[in-house]
């Protein structure tokens, strides 16, 4: 069996990259790829055949996006000369305990004047893309539509001051000004989009409010960048060991797009097609360190499968999140 040093090198954790071993490949018994495609009449369960959860529920995904984004585009209904037309503007926010976006707004701002005349608003929030090769349009996003309400409760205002100041350092400069007040959006509809051609659907507001954001929600972007940068050369092993199907074209590229406590999403370009997959952890992570450990295990197992050293009987749970539109036509 390879040494610990060789294992670390294979995972891209040591300078010099993966060690090279010549061996006959002996693949683990792979679980069947389960389809979870947008637009299907029936979506597959988020549990695999052993009862282990592989993916977050849609309300959890939506709540995780709104938790992590911290800023978005607020759309209000224009008044005056542009009466009735949508007016979009950039805003920062935090979430209260029910997942309601809380905004600190200047009473003289155009969007504030609009919403005081007509309280119907919506806000689009999206996870940031920090790498050029991952387009912003491919990132998960969420639209919260509802009515705006001024926060008047003193205890709630005090809590908002603390939470908002921690999330947005500039707030301390304006939070005491009588021109600024806290407002919150009371959701009436919530719409979640997973990315290009991935699951998109309306989310029940009560389910959204009761859902807990993923423990990695605020760390996802940094973790995704780290995996792609540190383990980029090892990502093809995940594809060949767990995702490749007969008839797939030559692998062109593979990137991790999302990581949460249950697993990670991957975007794979092979041949003329680009598909989205979900590769689940064997055990749900409860901390960032747990998630990093589970990711390391996936890379190690994939290396062992590819090089004929794997002694396990089963592969991690896998879902097909989206197939290229050209493939399905």
UniProtKB/TrEMBL annotation:
Signal sequence residues: 1-20
Domain DUF2470: 239-297
Domain of life assignment: Eukaryota
Pfam name, any one: DUF2470
Keyword Signal: yes
Gene Ontology cellular-component annotations: cytoplasm
Domain CREG-like beta-barrel positions: 58-209
Record protein name field: DUF2470 domain-containing protein
Phylogenetic placement of the source organism: Eukaryota, Sar, Stramenopiles, Ochrophyta, Pinguiophyceae
